[in-house]
Write a structure and sequence with these properties.
The protein is mainly alpha-helical. The protein has helices at residues 3-21, 28-54, 75-103, 122-126, and strands at 69-70, 73-74. The protein is built from 4 helices and 2 strands.
């Protein structure tokens, strides 16, 4: 399997699924932290990965990559850094939103005459 096919099947398709699934909750402001994370990932991963390939710790078969290299790494490796970060970031964001929504107090239904329940304070919990 080529590196590009691997990226398409196991990284790009799940990203597309998450983008479609959570399209109503995605905003530029909500995704901005992922941009910062991408900068950190590329800055931290590129140097050591280039060195590892240069020193022969691992490599890439020429017939399985596109042939475009930046330093010692094929373009697909750089795409993997970013796409994997986006995939994990979207998944973690979706999980965090679900956890936060579940911990929100229940809202009173429209037209209800019942007073909303106030959360207990520390003294009430202790007694």
């Amino acid at each position: 399997m080529t590196y590009a096919r691997f990226l398409g099947l196991f990284v790009v398709l799940p990203i597309l699924f998450l983008l479609v699934r959570y399209r109503r909750t995605l905003t530029p402001r909500g995704l901005a932290p992922m941009g910062v994370l991408l900068v950190v990932v590329y800055a931290a991963t590129s140097p050591w990965d280039n060195l590892a390939v240069k020193w022969g710790l691992w490599g890439f078969k020429p017939e399985l990559i596109w042939g475009i290299k930046l330093g010692y790494l094929p373009l697909e490796e750089y795409l993997f850094f970013g796409l994997q970060t986006v995939l994990v970031g979207l998944w973690a964001r979706a999980r965090l939103l679900r956890v936060l929504e579940a911990s929100e107090p229940q809202r009173r239904p429209a037209g209800s005459t019942e007073a909303p329940k106030q959360p207990l304070d520390a003294e009430e919990v202790a007694s």
